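retry 2 of 3: previous attempt timed out while embedding NAP. Reduced batch size to 1 and resubmitted. Inputs unchanged:
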Amino acid sequence: MIVTLVVAVAENGVIGLDGGMPWRLPTDLKRFKERTMGKPILMGRKTWEGLPRKPLPGRQNIVITRDIDYQAEGASVAHSFEDAIEQAEHSGASKVSVIGGGQIYEQAISFANRLDVTHVLAEIEGDTSFPTIDPAIWKEIARHDIPASEEDSHATRHVIYERITTGAGI
Ligand SMILES: NC(=O)c1ccc[n+]([C@@H]2O[C@H](COP(=O)([O-])OP(=O)(O)OC[C@H]3O[C@@H](n4cnc5c(N)ncnc54)[C@H](OP(=O)(O)O)[C@@H]3O)[C@@H](O)[C@H]2O)c1
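retry 2 succeeded.
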């Protein structure tokens, strides 16, 4: 299974504030949709609950929670990251995107093969962070600067990282 973490992260590591995102980036949301379409997306229960529209269409939505009674309309529910991967495998997928939030990225990064990162080019106040991207583990393989459109609050840089070290995968 190829595991990709898809994230937008500020220069100081921030990814979220008060259950939402501390920026407005419609250009990046379009790109997020293109990059994740057709593959299962794995997310923590808090990220699921923060989605303005759920499930995200065209993708198997898998919500991770420790609550065994949790119901997520239009989504599958998993009780660990490994359980979520198994559910994706059972549906025939060979690639998944992990779409947050902080707790799930923290656990999933050690299984990930690839990071699909939108660097938000600012330091931003928040309460949720992405783990440090260690250059001894992650090699940048593509980079693209994206100026802010009229609707975007910030300019961004899109970077794909691939794992250098072995031992990834699940
Ligand atoms: N910038 C970005 O790209 C991006 C992307 C996604 C989210 N975000 C932001 O990140 C924030 C949410 O992140 P968060 O860290 O607070 O929450 P989260 O990772 O979305 O969800 C946390 C929840 O996941 C469940 N969970 C975590 N580890 C688990 C495990 N090992 N087994 C089973 N369930 C587990 C628990 O649910 P239960 O409590 O139900 O057991 C936990 O409360 C929001 O501000 C959101 O907007 C940003």
